[in-house]
Amino acid sequence: MPTALRSGPYRFYFYSHEPNEPSHVHVDRDDCSAKFWLSPVTLARNFGFAPKELNRIYKIINENLDTLVEAWNGHFGTDR
Fold first, then answer.
1. Which three-class secondary structure state does DSSP give residue 47?
2. CA separation (Å) from 46 to 26, 28, 31, 51?
3. What three-state secondary structure class fits 79?
4. CA gap 72, 10 in Å, rounded
5. pTM exceeds 0.85, yes or no
6. Looking at residue 59, what DSSP letter applies?
7. For 3-45, how does the pLDDT look when each residue is reduced to its tens digit (9 = 90+)?
8. Which residues, listed in sequence order, are joined to residue 10 by a DSSP beta bridge?
9. How many CA atoms lie within 13 A of 16 on its CB side?
10. Distance CA 9, CA 39 (A)
């Protein structure tokens, strides 16, 4: 599970066994977890984050989108 970004209490990472899915990132904080597609940035799944916090995470992803896409491409070889 390569970590692509840390921001405040959030860890943004990929699972190595998901190369056939479109580019996305998983986000964890404590017992909460979410998955966001990167193109376009949209919520795929949410386990425990409140809507206000999801908005904060969405903003972090958009502010760091180039970094996250580069990390995805670096790990999987190409944007899907």
1. strand
2. 10, 10, 11, 10
3. coil
4. 17
5. yes
6. H
7. 999 999 999 999 887 767 899 999 999 999 999 999 999 999 9
8. 7
9. 4
10. 24
The token duo for 16 is: 């190595």
| DSSP per residue, 6-32 | EETTEEEE--TT-TTSPSEEEEEETTE
End-to-end CA distance of the chain: 18
Residue type (1 letter), 6 = R
Tell me how many degrees the CA angle 49-52-53 measures, rounded to the nearest 5.
Answer: 45
Task: Tell me: pLDDT of 79 over 60.
Answer: no
Q: Which residue, chain included where needed, has tokens 């070889």?
A: 77
**Token digits of residue 78:** 């190409």
